[in-house]
Amino acid sequence: MQHLQRIQVVDSHTGGEPTRVVLSGGPDLGAGPLSERVQRWVAQFDRFRSAVVNEPRGSDVLVGALLVPPHDPGCDFGVIFFNNVGPLGMCGHGTIGLMVTLAHLGRVKPGTHRIDTPVGPVSATLHPDGRVSVANVASYRHRASVTVDVPGIGGVTGDVAWGGNWFFLVRTPVWELSIQAVETLTDVSWRIRQAVNAQGFPEVDHVELFGPPGCGGHSRNFVLCPGKAYDRSPCGTGTSAKLACLAADGKLAEGEIWVQEGILGSAFEGEYRWEDRARGRVLPVVTGTAHVTAEATLLLKEEDPFQWGIRPGDAR
Ligand code: PYC
C-alpha cells in the first residue's frame, strides 16, 4: 500500500482573495510561541506549505491558514498564515476568511474571538450579518518619504510601514490602478520591491500602490505580495499600514472610517485608535466579508511526483 496523507480544508474568498483553512492533517509543530513554531515549520515542514497552496492543488494567489493550538492563554485559536513562498506574519483577509469558515462549520458564533498569530494576538469580531472586524496588531510607520531609485522607472517615494507584514506604500499615484493593468502593475511593483530591499529595507516584502477610488471609497490600492501574486482584496495588513501612515500624517482622525478599495473594487473599512501617539503606534480595525467556496480533502500520495506541490527549483 502506498502512503496516503489526507488534509481537510475549507476554502473561502475575501473580496476575491482566497484563503484555504487547514483543519486537520497538518504537521505537529509542538508547543511554544507561534513565532517559534513558525520557524520550526519553515525549517522542517516547508513541503507541507507547498503541498497545500502551490500548484497543482492551489495557485500562486492562494493563502493558507494552518489552525494550531494557541500559546497565549487568552486566545481561542492559533493560526499560521502562509503563501506560495513562505509564512506571513499576519493576514487580514485570511483572518476574515478564517472567521467565516469557522462560523460555517458551527465552531464560532457572533461575538469577539481572540486569535494567536506569529506576530501577536489579534481579535476578530463576527457580526450577526456575517461581516468580520479584525483588530490587528499595533501598526506604525517606520520611515516616511523614502525615495528609492528604481531601474527603468527612476525615483519612487514611499513610506515603510508595519501592519502585521512589512510594506512599502508608494506615495505618488503614477500608474492607473485597473484590473486591465495588472501585468504592468506587477512588473513595476516587483521592481520597486527589489530597489527598496537593496536600498536599505530588506524586510519589506509587500508593495502597495495607491490611486483614486473607483467605487465610492477613499482610495484604491494594488498590493503585490511576497511571491509576486497581487492581492485581489484591499489587503488587511496593507490597510493597517495605510491607517498608520494616515494617522502619522494627521490625515485621518481616531475613529474616522477609511474605505480602502482593492484592485477589483472590493472594499475594507478601516479605522484606528492610538496605542501610543508619541511613538506613532495605532491599533487598526479592518472590516470586511468573506464567502465559503469549498470543503475538500486534499490527497497526498507517495507515488505522485508532485505530492508536495510545485516549488521553484523542483522542475527536472
Ligand atoms: O489581507 O493582510 C492581508 C493579506 C496579506 C497578504 C495577502 N492578503
Number of strands: 16
The whole-number mean of residue pLDDT values reads 96
Strand order of the largest sheet: 8-9-10-11-12-13-14-15-7-6-5-4-3-2-1-16
Query: What profile does the largest beta sheet have?
Result: 16 strands, mixed
Category by helix and strand content:
alpha+beta
The first-to-last residue Cα distance is 27 Å
Description of the structure:
- The protein is an alpha+beta fold and 316 residues long.
- 20% of the residues lie in helices and 37% in strands.
- The chain has helices spanning 34-44, 46-53, 92-104, 182-198, 236-248, and strands spanning 4-14, 17-24, 63-68, 77-82, 111-116, 122-126, 132-135, 140-150, 154-162, 166-170, 206-211, 219-224, 258-261, 267-276, 281-288, 290-301.
- A 16-stranded mixed beta sheet has the order 8-9-10-11-12-13-14-15-7-6-5-4-3-2-1-16, sandwiched between helices.
- It starts with a strand and ends in a 15-residue tail after the last strand.
- Bound molecules: pyrrole-2-carboxylate.
- Residues 17, 63, 88, 91-93, 165, 225, 231, 233, 235-237 line the site of pyrrole-2-carboxylate.
Detail the topology: elements first, then pairings.
Elements: E1 4-14, E2 17-24, H1 34-44, H2 46-53, E3 63-68, E4 77-82, H3 92-104, E5 111-116, E6 122-126, E7 132-135, E8 140-150, E9 154-162, E10 166-170, H4 182-198, E11 206-211, E12 219-224, H5 236-248, E13 258-261, E14 267-276, E15 281-288, E16 290-301
Parallel strand pairs: 2-3, 4-5, 10-11, 12-13
Antiparallel strand pairs: 1-2, 1-16, 3-4, 5-6, 6-7, 7-15, 8-9, 9-10, 11-12, 13-14, 14-15
The protein binds pyrrole-2-carboxylate.
